[in-house]
Amino acid sequence: MTGLEMIWPQECKKLFSVADATATVETVKPSQDLQQLSAKPTAQQRTCIITGANSGLGLATAKALAKTGQWHVVMAVRDFSRTEKAVKAAGLSKNSYSLMYLDLASQTSIRQFVEQFRASGRTLDTLVCNAAVYLPTAKEPSYNADGVELSVMTNHLGHFLLANLMLEDLKKGKEKSASSNGAAKPSPRLIIVGSITGNTNTVAGNVPPKADLGQLEGLEAIAKGATEVPMINGGDFDGAKAYKDSKVCNMLTMGEMHRRFHDSTGIAFSSLYPGCIAETGLFRNHYGLFQKLFPLFQKYVTKGYVSEEEAGNRLAQVVSDPALDKSGAYWSWSRDAQSFENTLSDEASDSRKAAKLWDLSEQLVGLR
To answer: 46 by DSSP, 3-state: which?
Structure first.
């Protein structure tokens, strides 16, 4: 056993496997008067919805976009009080953001969110599916009111439903996006935050437990009426693997949306891994030893250390950079722009599995 292995217990290895997770989904419901959008963008601003924008990667991205003055960010969150405090600390100007309530574990909440956004009359330019539930040390699964495991529902099915419902809004945004001089604005974008830990063609993706959707046996069982099936492949619950599996679903969904909709809509579909955010609120309830060692491990061993601010700048670049508008791309950072696009694992790029996942997901969220 090496010195590193002596201070790197198995539970810490599990935490390492979800070190790039993005943002929690909060549990506080807003008062009625906070249901509506709280500010209007200027005529020059474009609108970007970011799920899970109250902390971590989502908040850092909102800050990076807002400071340009060119974007109005709709922060889709569950805890308004916490988000307002975070926004104030980040220094966002009042006309640069709005708050909207969204619970990705609830299909009703997702549909209400879409209805409220449409009632505002706003044009949508970009949707960023960022929020995630991560339960790496959980011994037992947690379920939503429909009996679906929270990682599956929030990270995959919730975003799957939201993305499908908001395709019409992105298409309308494209139709309305001609500027006063007749020049078209950049194509609308739908971005899903993926994960290197779900890609088994990487070192990080081979840290146990590895992502493996099997033949989607768990989702098939749920589609046939079963409840409280904890894993997508029908296996025993493992919180770290549940997160990784959901990220594979995210990346499969991105590829399938590109194949189904890009040519007919002009929307650019992509996913990205913004780097390992080594110091984040993700670890606040976990091992103190891990919280101390992991940033050092990333800085001095893997050289993969990324701050929340830098990760937010990277996601903001995928939102706004004209050079990163390729549909079907998976962006994963290296040192120069020429190497941003990277290759997904065999499973995360399996078009047959993506089509099967799509069919099952449609059934599970009532799109059929």
So the answer is: strand
**CA dist., res. 23 & res. 76, Å (int):** 12
Domains and CATH numbers, the chain: 3-364 (3.40.50.720)
| Separation between Cα atoms, residue 257 and residue 269, nearest integer Å | 7
pLDDT tens figures, 194-240:
988 899 998 888 989 999 999 999 999 999 999 899 999 999 999 98
- Residue 100 forms beta bridges with which residues? 76
Q: Are 319 and 65 in contact (CB under 8 A)?
A: yes
Tokens of 37: 């959008």
Which residues, at least 6 apart from 296, have a Cβ–Cβ distance to it below 8 Å?
none
Phi, psi (deg, nearest 5) at residue 189: -130, 145
Please state the pTM of the whole predicted model. Answer: 0.88
Q: Who's near 300: CB < 8 A, 6+ residues apart?
A: none
